[in-house]
Design brief:
The protein has about 400 residues and is α/β, with parallel strands linked by helices. The protein has a single domain, classed as Glycosidases (TIM Barrel, Alpha-Beta Barrel), CATH 3.20.20. About 30% of the residues lie in helices and about 15% in strands. It is built from ten helices and twelve strands. Strands 1, 2, 3, 4, 5, 6, 7, 8, 9 and 12 form a ten-stranded mixed beta sheet that branches. Strands 10-11 form a two-stranded antiparallel ribbon. Helix 9 runs parallel beside helix 10. The two termini are about 30 Å apart.
Length: about 400
């Protein structure tokens, strides 16, 4: 009421100790005008329950990033995997931060946050045809030098066994860049040599597997093309009917992971998904862009159901052979896909419940999270662009498990 500032900076995180690298996919599209394909928080006015618990925010604000780091670390997430896009017109050219789509999440927010070095980060190269892809020359002459200088050399980049980890979104799209799997492996090895010359032990490259099935050929192709391991942006689950019950969702996600691990136990990692409901994207504008969100079936796991999925997936990965990637990295879908409808970041609908599930199952629970919000301390001036959400409006009728 009186706008009294009780502190001058965000509360320092009291981090939980995670059992492995727990990485949440991060979609940095919440700076006004940055996304291009959609209107950010302006698309959520009809979905007030999705409002972030701290309110709408300018994602380029490093102080807000500090709060995200705090919330993540206190619940066991110790790495953000940022979707990384270059603009189409930058393809084949020298890369700079200004040539990126949604580059603000890293270059304006994280890299200026007080707590940045407490949080690991990695990039996932969004190599789709809508954005700038690459070719043989460009990969070595433009992308790798930029990644080495701007990301891999930072003290908080995700490095395992002395090797930075590069995630690639969409293995199939890179297939068209090279004439054969062996040629792709050759160029990936040249990237690894570049990393070695910069003092690293090499470079680990991971492929995102998009198909919802389990194809042994897909995983073999990943290996032949030089990928070290593979992962999913989500659990790979699409229900046969709309809004199935918890037990069906839990069984389906875990059964799919079990089948994938049976095909490739050394190189596949687990991704647990909380829910998916792309209502704000079910519009004619998205249809014209070639997306079919309106045809997707929705699912909503309760927070307890999400906890049970994580527990079962962790048990499966702990049983893998020594050296398996699944014993080292556990992925969370997703930190902040507010409009696509899958997020664990604190919201008005769910509070911290999904983060609490992660903390319960993937950490030693050796900390005491501080649940005071920025508003409680007079530090919530993060929104200069979006206007205020109408939280007093009538929420649309929707399925609720809690």
């Amino acid at each position: 009421m009186y706008h009294i500032r009780l502190q001058d900076e965000p509360v320092r995180p009291s981090a939980a100790t995670p059992c492995m690298t727990v990485a949440a996919h991060y979609y940095p599209a919440w700076k006004r005008g940055a996304a291009g394909l959609h209107n950010g928080f302006d698309d959520l006015h009809g979905y007030p329950e999705r409002t972030p618990l701290a309110g709408y925010y300018d994602e380029e604000n490093p102080e807000y990033c500090d709060w995200e780091i705090k919330w993540a670390l206190e619940h066991g997430i110790n790495c953000f995997i940022y979707c990384w896009y270059r603009r189409k017109e930058n393809e084949g050219k020298k890369v700079s931060p200004s040539a990126l789509r949604c580059g603000h999440g890293l270059h304006e927010a994280l890299f200026h946050a007080r707590f940045q070095n407490l949080m690991k980060f990695a990039i996932m190269f969004e190599n789709g045809n809508r954005w700038g892809n690459t070719d043989r020359h460009d990969l070595l002459e433009n992308l790798m030098p930029f990644w080495l200088d701007e990301y891999f050399s930072r003290p908080n980049y995700l490095v395992l066994d002395g090797k930075p980890v590069l995630f690639v979104c969409g293995k199939a799209i890179l297939d068209g860049v090279f004439d054969s799997p062996s040629e792709q492996r050759q160029y990936f090895d040249r990237c690894r040599s570049m990393a070695v010359r910069r003092g690293f032990a090499g470079l680990s490259i991971a492929a995102c597997v998009w198909d919802y099935g389990v194809a042994k050929e897909t995983y073999l192709d990943c290996t032949e093309r030089g990928y070290d391991f593979h992962f999913g942006y989500n659990a790979g689950y699409s229900p046969a009917r709309d809004l199935p019950p918890d037990e069906e969702i839990i069984s389906a996600q875990c059964d799919l992971l079990a089948r994938r691990l049976a095909v490739d136990p050394l190189r596949h990692t687990a991704t647990a998904s909380c829910f998916r409901d792309a209502g704000p994207r079910c519009t004619p504008a998205w249809d014209r862009l070639g997306f079919s969100f309106g045809k997707e079936t929705r699912y909503h796991l309760s927070a307890d159901g999400f906890r049970r999925v994580i527990r079962r997936m962790r048990e499966m990965t702990e049983a893998l052979p020594e050296g398996a990637w699944g014993r080292r990295i556990f992925m969370i879908d997703n930190w902040n896909e507010w409009d696509e409808g899958h997020y664990v970041s604190p919201s008005h609908e769910f509070g911290f419940r999904y983060l609490e599930a992660i903390r319960e199952e993937l950490t030693l629970r050796d900390n005491l999270p501080d649940y005071r919000m920025p508003q409680d301390l007079g530090l919530s001036n993060f929104n200069r662009s979006w206007g205020e959400p109408d939280l007093g409006g009538v929420c649309r009728e929707r399925f609720r498990l809690e």
